[in-house]
Write a structure and sequence with these properties.
4-stranded antiparallel beta sheet; 5-stranded mixed beta sheet; 6 helices; single chain; 42% strand; Neuraminidase; mainly beta
């Protein structure tokens, strides 16, 4: 077969097929592994929903991490952090930041080490520590990360500092393999990352509170322009929403695209859906839907699974039900499949044999991008 024709055929195949075909013939191996092929392939394969899969990250015994492909149960990667001196996650729980261009960021809330991983390629890269983090370890008591993309991947690390009583922010660029320090935020405490269903990776988002007044906020970072913005989600004027988005209340929030968000508030068997409207720091939250979950949850499952059912309309998000939101007769292992375009729940199901604290689920699209 003509090499140019073969090149074009391979460009049209999904990532998992390419990884199998590497072993078919030497010429195929050299084509698929060539920098020119991978660059062109990654440019052409942006946001192909037909190739999206689900990965499950199991955290065993605080030092072991398994990355599984849910549709066939295949284990893609397995790491023992306790016995790997290069990894800086000893004796700390491991967490995963959402997928961007086939990459995920592995970190720990308690330890400063970071790693970028491509599960399909089985590749992992340890990042150097920022200068401030490496010289002031004893002053930093927690951190959060965000992964994004602007021509190449970038990582934002948010460090809570007990000495300066502020939030330090650092930005890693894969292009330069170095960190730069961003502006400090005196008034913010970051609590957790926000799930994004926008696949271009131009923004990273976190949920947090202000030190003064304990007002709930969303902190967003623009990867291209390298700037932060803060969005208020307290004091909205909606009495029910304001009652729930308080510092110690639990609710679900995800980013629908770069600048719009959805808040899901669960109150017994009722679920209220709020969507943001507007730009900048002052947005309006509209109550778009109220869902009666009693009949949705009334029947027993009759089955439980490790597999997440696929729903190929491109507008669904898998939501994990946190233990503090679970009703007395519900399981903390339950997952909800929510169509945020049609504003309705499609399905609910249960992950078998595990508790909610032991795993993270990532909606993932494979790529040939190396960390």
């Amino acid at each position: 077969m003509n090499i140019d024709v073969l090149f074009e055929i391979l460009l049209r195949l999904p990532v998992r097929s390419l990884l199998r075909f590497i072993g078919v013939h030497k010429s195929w191996y050299y084509i698929i592994n060539s920098p020119g092929f991978r660059k062109l392939y990654n440019l052409r394969r942006n946001n192909n929903k037909d190739e999206e899969v689900y990965l499950c990250f199991f955290n065993y015994g605080r030092t072991l991490l398994s990355i599984d492909l849910l549709d066939n149960g295949k284990s893609l990667m397995w790491y023992n952090f306790q016995h790997n001196d290069q990894m800086k996650f000893k004796y700390a729980s491991v967490s995963v930041s959402g997928e961007v261009k086939g990459l995920v960021c592995i970190s720990s809330p308690c330890v400063l080490g970071l790693a970028i991983c491509n599960p399909f390629l089985g590749q992992l890269k340890n990042l150097p520590l920022p200068l401030y983090a490496s010289t002031h370890r004893q002053d930093l008591y927690a951190h959060h990360v965000g992964l994004g993309f602007d021509e190449d991947y970038k990582v934002v690390q948010l460090l809570l500092c007990s000495v300066h009583d502020c939030l330090h922010a650092n930005l890693y660029s894969a292009r330069t393999n170095s960190w730069t320090e961003l502006d400090r935020h005196q008034d913010l405490i970051i609590q957790k990352p926000i799930k994004s269903v926008c696949k271009n990776g131009s923004f990273a988002h976190w949920e947090g509170i202000t030190r003064k007044g304990s007002k709930k906020i969303i902190l967003s970072f623009d990867m291209k322009n390298e700037v932060f913005r803060t969005i208020k989600i307290s004091g909205t004027g909606d009495q029910e929403l304001d009652n729930y988005v308080r510092p110690f209340k639990d609710f679900m929030i995800f980013a629908k695209d770069e600048c719009s968000f959805v808040i899901l508030v669960m109150d017994e068997y009722k679920l209220k859906v709020y969507e943001s409207n507007g730009e900048g720091s002052e947005v309006i939250w509209n109550n778009m839907n109220n869902v009666d979950l009693y009949y949705f949850w009334k029947d027993n499952f009759g089955w439980s699974t490790y597999d997440i059912p696929f729903w190929r309309n491109g507008n669904c998000v898998v939501l994990q039900v946190r233990s503090s939101m679970v009703l007395k007769d519900r399981s903390s292992r339950e997952l909800l499949l929510y169509d945020y375009h049609a504003r309705k729940f499609i399905k609910h199901f249960e992950m078998s044999g595990i508790s909610s604290s032991e795993y993270d689920i990532i909606e993932y699209e494979g790529s040939l991008i190396s960390p």
